[in-house]
Specification:
Elements lengths: L14 H8 L3 H18 L4 E4 L4 H13 L4 E5 L6 H7 L5 E4 L5 H7 L7 H12 L4 H6 L4 H5 L10 H4 L9 H17 L2 E3 L8 H10 L2 E2 L6 E2 L7 H10 L11 E4 L2 E4 L22 H8 L1 H8 L21
Parallel strand pairs: 1-2, 1-4, 2-3
Antiparallel strand pairs: 5-6, 7-8
Helix pairs in contact: 13-14
Length: 322
């Protein structure tokens, strides 16, 4: 068993290596994670913190870190988009600093637009609208040279109808509400973050691991991701096996069809984020929200001009600036 961060020597990890490591027993992954935590802690002389969302992944990371270094600070980004059960759980954890962004979610929507489809598509829509004759526009034109050249592999033509609509759309939400305040905290505190993200969660996180490994010492914004080679099943098994307290939003951990799952929410994230919602089977996240958190659902769907988020559709949504 060996997981090394090879980027400093110019070597890259491979997909095959990641697949092999993801198949390792949980006990091995715990050892690797704590090895990476120790390397990060020692490299920065203890000037580190855990980015703590209150979700199950960061709960596991915080437990792993504090088993070695009990006094490491946790930092919670108080975006206002968290489930109340998440906020209640965070309040039970010692040594957590709450950091607020400079804008509210409603202000982000008003200035930039709604988080719809996916971060990549929203970014291209945003670019297309701000520069209709630019590079991004070719992705939405089925007859463009770009789409013909790549045989429509990267085409976004199926989203042209929404790109040409009057619905304000942007990818800037996470950047404004999470990344900017986190980077500000890093600068002001001098601490370096540890994140509970996994390579299996997205293509971007996969490629970042292959480039930097778990500890990105050489990145523009150095970050440690000790759970990179873990999977969702590893997180659930760790919580269940070691009886780690976690947010009530997830319900209980049970075994079903040979796999562990939660009886409540499987993922939390930002309550009103619509990225990927169009791919979900019914009941989707917003339909479930109506049942479990009716007041949040009402605020989400209430017309913009009435003080809501207008995500149920509003004739006044053109007032939002995109």
């Amino acid at each position: 068993m060996a997981e090394t961060d090879k980027s400093l020597s110019g070597d890259l990890h491979t997909s095959a290596e990641l697949k092999e490591m993801q198949a390792w027993p949980l006990e091995w992954k715990i050892q690797v994670a704590q090895q990476k935590i120790a390397e990060w802690y020692d490299y920065y002389n203890g000037n580190v913190y855990v980015s703590f969302s209150g979700g199950k992944d960061s709960t596991v990371l915080l437990d792993l870190v504090r088993k070695i270094y009990p006094n490491v600070k946790a930092v919670f980004m108080d975006t206002g988009l968290e489930f109340p059960e998440i906020r209640d759980f965070v309040k039970t954890i010692e040594n957590v600093e709450w950091v607020k962004p400079s804008m509210t979610f409603r202000a982000v929507i008003e200035r930039y637009g709604y988080p719809l489809i996916s971060k990549e598509v929203a970014a291209k829509i945003y670019d297309y609208r701000n520069k209709p004759d630019g590079y991004a526009a070719q992705r939405f034109d089925p007859e463009s040279d770009f789409n013909k050249r790549y045989n429509k592999k990267y085409s976004l033509a199926k989203y042209k109808w929404i790109a040409d609509s009057d619905i304000p759309i942007s990818h800037r939400c996470c950047e404004v509400l999470k990344k900017h305040p986190a980077q500000r905290f890093d600068r002001e505190s001098g601490l370096k973050p540890m994140l509970g993200t996994m390579a299996c969660e997205s293509g971007l996180r996969n490629s970042e691991w292959m480039k930097h490994g778990c500890n990105a010492f050489d990145a523009k914004h150095p970050t440690s991701k000790p759970l990179s080679i873990w999977t969702e099943q590893d997180v659930l098994r760790y919580l269940y096996q070691y009886k780690i307290p976690f947010s009530k939003i997830y319900g209980d951990i049970i075994e079903k069809d040979g796999k562990l799952c939660t009886t409540g929410r499987d993922r939390t994230g930002c309550v009103f984020c619509a990225f990927g919602a169009h791919l979900e089977k019914e009941p989707n996240r917003f339909q479930r929200l109506k049942i479990t958190h009716p007041q949040l659902w009402q605020y989400c769907m209430k017309p913009w001009e009435d003080g809501g988020l207008g995500m149920g559709g509003s004739p006044e949504r053109n007032k939002c600036k995109n």
